[in-house]
Amino acid sequence: MKAQIEIGSDSHGTAVPIDIEELLATRLLVQGNSGSGKSHLLRRLLEQSAGLVQQVVIDPEGDFTSLADHFDHVVIEGAGYSPREIEALAGRIRQHRASVVLALDDLEVEQQIRCAASFLTALFDAPREHWFPALVVVDEAQMFAPSAAGEMAEDTRRMTLSAMTNLMCRGRKRGLAGIVATQRLAKLAKNVAAEASNFLMGRTFLDIDMQRAADLLGMDRRQAERIRDLQRGHFLGLGPAISRRPVAVHIGEVKSGGKNAAAELAPLPQTGAEEMGALLHAELAEEAAETVHRPPPAPPAPPAAETLVESIAKKAEERAPVGQEAATAMPAGDIDSVMRDMAAEEGATFRPVSTQFRDFATRCRERGIPSAHIDMPGFRRRFAFASAGIHQLDDEAQASIERMAQHVADDVLAPYLAIVVAAARGQGTPDEDHLAQVYGTASPGRIRRLLEHLERTGLIVVHEDYGGARTITVPGIEDVLA
Fold this sequence. Notes:
Elements: E1 4-9, E2 15-19, H1 20-26, E3 28-31, H2 38-49, E4 54-59, E5 74-77, H3 83-96, E6 100-103, H4 109-124, E7 134-138, H5 141-144, H6 154-170, E8 176-182, H7 190-193, E9 198-201, H8 207-217, H9 221-228, E10 234-239, E11 243-251, H10 273-281, H11 284-291, H12 305-318, H13 324-328, H14 333-344, H15 353-367, H16 376-388, H17 395-404, H18 410-424, H19 432-439, H20 444-456, E12 461-464, E13 470-473, H21 477-481
Parallel strand pairs: 3-8, 3-9, 4-6, 4-7, 5-6, 7-8
Antiparallel strand pairs: 1-2, 1-11, 9-10, 10-11, 12-13
């Protein structure tokens, strides 16, 4: 099998090869400022070697997903999977020798780093029988192996440095050949950069990066000035897989294209300033209002005492006299209707339980409904059922849910029931805003802690992927749906 590929040509037009077998043993470091052609170089390398060796690409910008249009690469959107799924996918990738692109562009920076670290660690920890040779390309490597702590959490930094160090230092014995590309050598951890024996250095302007690049290429300070003058797509190469002496390389053409490539100039719209201003400001307030987090509504003010007395007296006159026998025969559904009316009012769940209970007792007296047999704990549980909308289900489903909720604590009953009712109605997972309204809070953090508590106690199972999408499963819901 042919083990060499053509990466480009030198200043004389002679082809410059890269020995893939040697590259697998000696790794590669690519440096170049933004716009130097670094991604184009990686794309050329991947395209030329696609039929020779398995390839795994860590792609923080989604720039290499177009490889799937021309080759057999599988694109994995990191935002759509949980940490455990990412690890399982990495294991299957090594087992089946699949070439993949892990696209992380839909994640925030720290989530990108954690996802990539979990993925690389799982590649590294694959069973010995799956140690097949593979090129592992990490673009923007300074993100995943920073030389300084920066703004990421310390546990995230330790996690990603460990994964990148394992890839570059110990990966060779496991068949993993790291190819790391960075905009700045000074920002890349030295123990990661030092493990590469092959170098392709593109244009860079900062003295510290030029000097480090020149040192790696074995050039003196005067020769280092060449690095500043390199054109886009031109690199200086050195290493056992490329050349024993520094060679200037003009990277060849590629088939696929990056979705983030700079577009050509296009004509500006022929719109006057007045018309453009109107377009910019049209319905601006409405759009801004939709994205602003609204605080919870203030609880309704209690009615004045005089008004309340008059209202009670008026309803008593309109009502026919009710004896004790008739009162005890009053259907329980009337109490539930009072609960539902209270729960439907805006801001009802944000009021203290004691205030809700007094309001409930007053409404029952107004309607002539006996409520003395319901104490505050009993009211709290029944109000939780009303707030969750359990009355929207049929009688059999309501009975099943009531059995499921028998041992659920009063303070978390309402949001738990909201999750169960949504699952029973086939509506999926309630969003945080709905759970916050039922729970009577405006704190997203409190909702996250609530879900963690419900999961620890075994009431729900939470599945959350790197992109933040959350799915909640309720054990025992099958009985309700049956």
